[in-house]
Amino acid sequence: MSIVVKKWNELAEVKAELAARDWFFATSGNLSIKVTDDPLTFLVTASGKDKRKQTDEDFLLVDAAGRPAEKTHLKPSAETLLHVEIYNRTNAGCVLHVHTVDNNLISELYAQNGEAVFSGQEIIKAFGIWEENAAVRIPIIDNYADIPTLAREFANYIHGDAGAVLIQNHGITVWGRTAFEAKKHLEAWEFLFRWQVKRLLLQRAGLPVG
Ligand SMILES: [Zn+2]
């Protein structure tokens, strides 16, 4: 099996799992997986597809600048430039981006702080952090309609081979060394977002939470 087919199958599996979680509203979201390092190539979701469906046109191979690496009628996702920034700056192997109601709410609630911080949660171990009462933080950046501008702003928050950034009222982008790590981190963040939104609602209702 060629490396491209192997990576295609790996990304298709992640896509199916995220689709089962209903994280691809209205064709939103984009995913990628690195195929080769030298030259850098990666598979990225094609633009405008319903990501709940599985087809042989779901992904296309692109180069280090996010341009198609082979002749194709498919267009890479509009936000491929964010993936380009990650692969060019880190050893990440996979990038996942989804728009969910909870990640949008958290991005709006904590926008003025420039980050959202979570602590006192067992799921923080998913990030490889084992200390008791550990805190995790995720930066929140402004959403720019102009993708090159968004990608430039986003690049300021790319530190390390695994990480995550929230884009205000837009979505989360998570990257990891492997598809498994990126998916695990994405699930942990979405757990924290949903937990926090529900806690705030319960607190508001006067229930003894937090
Ligand atoms: Zn998006």
What's the layout of helices and strands?
Blueprint: H1 3-20, E1 30-37, E2 40-45, E3 59-63, H2 80-89, E4 94-98, H3 101-109, E5 115-119, E6 135-141, H4 147-155, E7 163-167, E8 171-176, H5 179-204
Parallel strand pairs: 6-7
Antiparallel strand pairs: 1-2, 1-4, 2-3, 4-8, 5-6, 7-8
Bound molecules: zinc ion.
Kindly describe this structure.
Helices cover 34% and strands 22% of the residues. With 210 residues, it is an alpha+beta fold. It has one domain (3-204): Class II aldolase/adducin N-terminal domain (L-fuculose-1-phosphate Aldolase), CATH 3.40.225. It has an eight-stranded mixed β-sheet with strand order 3-2-1-4-8-7-6-5, sandwiched between helices. A hairpin with a 2-residue loop joins strand 1 and strand 2 (40-45). Helix 2 packs parallel to helix 4 (147-155) and helix 3 packs across helix 5 (179-204). It starts with a helix and ends in a 6-residue tail after the last helix. The mean pLDDT is 96. The structure holds zinc ion. Residues 28, 79, 97, 99, 170-171 line the site of zinc ion (ZN).
